[in-house]
Amino acid sequence: MFKRLLILFCGVLMMCTATAASAATVTKLKNGLTVLIQEDKRFPLVSTRLYVHAGSGYEEPREAGISHVLEHMVFKGTKNYAKGQIAASIEELGGYLNAATSFDYTVYIADLPADAWKTGLKVLRDQAFFATIDPEELESEKKVVISELERGEDSPFGFLFKNLQQQTMKGTTYAWPIIGYRDTINSFTRDDIANYINKHYQPQQMLLVVCGDIDEKTVLAEAEKLYGGLENTANVTPPSIVNLEKLDSTGPNVQVVEGKWNKVYLGISFPIPGFEDVNTTGIDMLAQLMGGDKTSPFYRKYQYEKQLVDSISASAYSFERAGLIYITAVLDADKLDKFWPELMKDLSNLKASEFKDEDIARVRLNLEDSLFRAKETLSGLTSKIGLFEFFFGGEQGEQNYLDEVKNVNREQLQNLIDTYLKPERLKATLLAPQDSTVSETTLTAQVVKNWESEEAAKKLKKAEEAAGKKETIDLGNGRQLILIPDNTLPYVAIDMDFMGGDSLITKKQEGLSVLAARVLTKGTGSMDAPAIEEYLADRASSIAASASRRTFSVSARYPARFSKDILKLFTQMVQNPTMAEEEVNREKTDQIAGIKLREDQPLGLATRNLFPFLFTDSIYNYYHAGIPARIEKFTQDDVDDFWKKQKAMPWTMAVAGVFDRDAIIAFAKGLPEPTQKRPEKFVPTWNNDRIKSIALKDRNQAHLFMIFETVPLTSEDTAGLELMQTILAGQSGLLFNDLRDKHGLGYTVTASSWQSTITGFTYFYIGTEPSKEEAAMDGFRRIIKEIQDKPLSEEQIKRGQNLMRGQYYRGHQSLGSRSAEAAGLATAQLPLSYNKDIVEQVQNLTPKDIQEIAKKYLNVDKAYILRVAP
C-alpha cells in the first residue's frame, strides 16, 4: 500500500546533465492498453511495470482479499511457465520479479539487465493474462496468505491501521484490508478467481511502463507484438466515488483493545476525499505541517519538549475515491492521561495562521524534492512516471501538482481544517497493555470536553566513466578520503566511518555508543535540536549518526547547492557537539522506548537476542542497543567521555556526487585528527548452548532461525557462501519453493548471511504456525541433505550467479549506497572493489563447489536454533 502516492513521487521536473533520462513517449494500443516508454542510459538496467486498474477497492465484500490472492497465484504457473519457472526465468538472468496489491491497482514488477528486457515483457504478460490457477496450488497458497495475514496481526502498527481503516471506511469497498479475512480467503475457488480476472483484467484497464537502457521504437514494437492482440472481453464499470457525507458521523468513537503490549499504540483517523479531489494537495500539506517530520508542532511539543510520547506523526492516506488523515503515537500508559486531552485540545484549536512562513516553505521544498530523489534509481523513476500516467495525467499531472503546492495558502488550509478535522468524524483506536485502566468512556468524554462537536557491464563502464573516477587520498594520521564524482544529479552523499563503536565500551556500558550516536546531532554551538532540524529541513538535507559493534558513522545527504552550509554544520557536529544533558535524557527515554517497541514484535525480539545468544564474550555478546536499566543510569559525562574516545579513532570518509574537490579536501582536513590506533582484532567465543527459545504471548506465529557458523569476509569461501545463500533465498529459491510453495509452511521463508572481518554465520528463517514448527525444521534439514548429497543443477547455479550480478547493479545506483559502501570497505581494510570482485568470483563457481560449501558449513548437528513463539 502506498502512503499518499503524490507525497512519494511528486515535485518538480528538473533538468539534469546529458546522462539524464529523455522525455517519455505514451502510446495507446488498439485494444486500449497504454504503453509508456522512457529511455534512460545511466545504468545497464531496465525496469518494467504492468499496472492493472483493480485492487481491493474493486472487490465485492465476499471477495475481500481476492486481488491479493490472485497476485500470489500468478507466480504459481502460467500458460508458458510452469510452477517455479516464472521467478526463475527472471532471476537466472540476474533480474528481480515481484508484484504488489493496493486498494486501487495491482502492479507487476520486473527489473532486469538491459539485454534481457524482452523477458520482462513476456513474463508480465503471462502473469496478467495467462495464469493457470491450479486448484491444488490455490489451496496451498491460501495457507501462505493466512500466514501473511497472521504475521500482520502480530504487528501493533498493522493491527492499528486495519482497525481504523475498517471504522473510517465503513460502508465502502475500502473498509476491508487488502489481504482480506480468513473466511473470505479460505472460500475462494478457481472459478471465483477466473471470474475476477474476466471482470477486471482487461487491456483497456492496464498501463505498461518500460524505463531504462532501451530503444523506444524497438520496445514499442515488441509491446505491440506481445500485448496488441489481447482482447477486451468485458465492459468495465469503475466503483463510484465515495460520498463522505454518508460515512459514519456519530463520533467521536474511541476503542481500546488490551493485549500483551509494552506500550500504548494510538491511532486517530478522519475521512478525506480521494486523490482526484481538488483539495487533496492541500490536505497533503496540512498533514505534513501538523506532524510530518521533526520540525512539526506535534513532534516538537509532545516528543521533544514534553517527552510525553516515544513517537508521533500525521499523514494523509489518499486512495482513488476516498482516504483518511491518520495520526499515530506510541507512548507509556502512565502518560496517556496527560497526552490525550492535550492533543484533543490542540486539534480542536488548530489554526492555519499558526503555521510559519518558513514551515510552509519547508513543506513545499520537501514535497518537490521527493520527486527529484525518486529519479535517482530506475525503479523509483519507473514507479513515479507509471503512477502519474495511470492516475494523474502524466507529466501534466506533475505540473498541476507542483502548481497546487505553490498556491496553497493559509485560507485554504484553514478551510480544510474546518471541513475535515471534525470530532463527529473522529475514530480512534488504542492498543493498551493489559490491566492499564485505559477507559474508552473517559477518553471519549475528553474529546467532547476539549473539542466541541459541530454535530454531536559495458553500459556499466560507460556509466562509471560518466560518473568520474574514484580517488583515494591519504590525509595522514589515520585519515582517508575517498572521492566518487557523479554529475548525474545535483546531490551529495557523505559517509564518515570511525573505528570504534562498541569496541570502546565495556559490557556494563552496553548501549552507550548507540546513545552517543543519537545525541551527537542534537546540538552544536548556538543551535539546539529544533534549530538544527529546521536548518536541515529548509535545505532538504539530513545529517545522521549511527553506531555499530566495531564502527561509528556520521553521514550527510543534501542538494549540492547547499554544500557550504551542510559541510560547516557537519564539522561543528563532529568537532564540538553540545551533548546537552536534556538531550541525553530525552534520547535515553527514546532509546528505551525503541527497545520495548522492538520487543513487542517477534522478529525484532529475535534479532535483538541473536548476537548475545551466539557469542558468550567480546562485543559480539553485547545487547547493542543496551539494557533499559543500564541506559537509565548513563549521564552526560558518560556520553562526553565516549565521544572524546570515539573522535580520536582513525576514520575514512567517502563523498559521492557533485562537489568541489578542493573544498571537500579542506573540509576533511578540518575534521578530528586521530590520536589512537585501530582496536586490536579479537576472536569471539561461540556459545556451547545451541538452542534458545523466547516466549512472546498472544501472537499467531512462531519465528524460527537455524544458524550455522561460517568464516570472515577475507576467507576464500566467501564467494561460495554468498552464492549458496542466494540460491537458497528468493522466490525461485530452494527454501521458498519447497517450504512455502510445495508445503505451505509459512509466508516468509528465506536464507541470509552475516560476515565481518572476524567471523560470520549463515541462517535459515521461517515464520510459521506453531503447529508446523517441526515440519518447518524438517524442511530445513531436508533441503540441506539434498544439496549436500547431490550437486545443484547448472541452471540453479546460473540463476544465482545472474541474480547476484543484478543485485549488485541495482544496489549501487544511489549516491548514498556508493559512499556508504566505499567508507565501510575502506574502514574494514578491504579493497573498494571487494563486493564487485565477489560477484565476479561467483561467476566461476561450479555445482561441485557449492556442494562442498554446503558439506563444509551446513552441519545440522552443530546448528544453533533461535525460536520466538507464543
Automatic annotation (TrEMBL):
<feature type="domain" description="Peptidase M16 C-terminal">
    <location>
        <begin position="634"/>
        <end position="803"/>
    </location>
</feature>
<keyword id="KW-0732">Signal</keyword>
<dbReference type="GO" id="GO:0006508">
    <property type="term" value="P:proteolysis"/>
</dbReference>
<dbReference type="InterPro" id="IPR011249">
    <property type="entry name" value="Metalloenz_LuxS/M16"/>
</dbReference>
<feature type="domain" description="Peptidase M16 N-terminal">
    <location>
        <begin position="490"/>
        <end position="590"/>
    </location>
</feature>
<feature type="domain" description="Peptidase M16 N-terminal">
    <location>
        <begin position="35"/>
        <end position="179"/>
    </location>
</feature>
<dbReference type="Pfam" id="PF05193">
    <property type="entry name" value="Peptidase_M16_C"/>
</dbReference>
<dbReference type="GO" id="GO:0046872">
    <property type="term" value="F:metal ion binding"/>
</dbReference>
<dbReference type="InterPro" id="IPR011765">
    <property type="entry name" value="Pept_M16_N"/>
</dbReference>
<keyword id="KW-0378">Hydrolase</keyword>
<dbReference type="InterPro" id="IPR050361">
    <property type="entry name" value="MPP/UQCRC_Complex"/>
</dbReference>
<dbReference type="Pfam" id="PF00675">
    <property type="entry name" value="Peptidase_M16"/>
</dbReference>
<keyword id="KW-0645">Protease</keyword>
<dbReference type="InterPro" id="IPR001431">
    <property type="entry name" value="Pept_M16_Zn_BS"/>
</dbReference>
<protein>
    <submittedName>
        <fullName>Zinc protease</fullName>
    </submittedName>
</protein>
<dbReference type="GO" id="GO:0004222">
    <property type="term" value="F:metalloendopeptidase activity"/>
</dbReference>
<comment type="similarity">
    <text>Belongs to the peptidase M16 family.</text>
</comment>
<dbReference type="InterPro" id="IPR007863">
    <property type="entry name" value="Peptidase_M16_C"/>
</dbReference>
<feature type="domain" description="Peptidase M16 C-terminal">
    <location>
        <begin position="187"/>
        <end position="366"/>
    </location>
</feature>
<feature type="signal peptide">
    <location>
        <begin position="1"/>
        <end position="20"/>
    </location>
</feature>
